[in-house]
Amino acid sequence: MTQRGSSPFAPSGYKVWRNVKEYGAKGDGVTDDTVAINRAISDGGRCGANCGSSTIYPAYYNTQLIGDPLELPTILAVSSFVGLGVSTSDVYIGDQEEWYININNFLCSVRNFKVDITRTDQGAYVCAVHWQVAQGSSLKELEIYMTQDASTTQQ
Question: How many whole angstroms separate alpha carbon 100 and alpha carbon 150?
Answer without folding.
Answer: 33
